[in-house]
Design a protein that fits this description.
Layout lengths: L1 H12 L5 H13 L5 H21 L3 H23 L3 H20 L11
Helix pairs in contact: 1-3, 2-3, 3-4, 4-5
Length: 117
């Protein structure tokens, strides 16, 4: 769960959650042909942020991993692979997808709220 914490700190430090950045993400989604890109940009960004927090504190971990799996699967197949990104550019999204799958299968573990600390 600490990998998600480090990624969350990096994302907040990079101001990923600012409306201007989400608007930029929305324009990328529009270029990819997504319907309602601004809605999907906000829903995607903030649902993943909330799920990261749930994973870090260890509450409802299996449920919280589902949006993360969906988000990074979509990111890989609609953005990274079609643009021909290098393995270095793809690796963060791939690692977070695999970690999301791990938490979906394994659960929170200790210490966590799910396991009663």
């Amino acid at each position: 769960r600490m990998v998600f914490l480090l990624y969350l700190i990096t994302a907040i430090k990079a101001e990923v959650w600012l409306p201007s950045v989400v608007t930029s993400f929305s324009s990328q989604l529009q270029n990819l042909g997504f319907p309602l890109p601004i809605l999907f940009a906000y829903v995607g960004s903030y649902s993943v942020l909330i799920c990261y927090i749930l994973l870090i504190i260890g509450w409802k971990v299996r449920w919280a991993s589902i949006p993360i799996i969906i988000y990074f699967t979509v990111a890989l197949f609609t953005y990274h692979f079609p643009k021909g990104h290098s393995i270095r550019e793809i690796m963060p999204a791939f690692v977070l997808l695999v970690l999301g799958m791990y938490f979906f299968i394994a659960g929170a573990g200790k210490p966590s709220i799910d396991e009663g600390l």
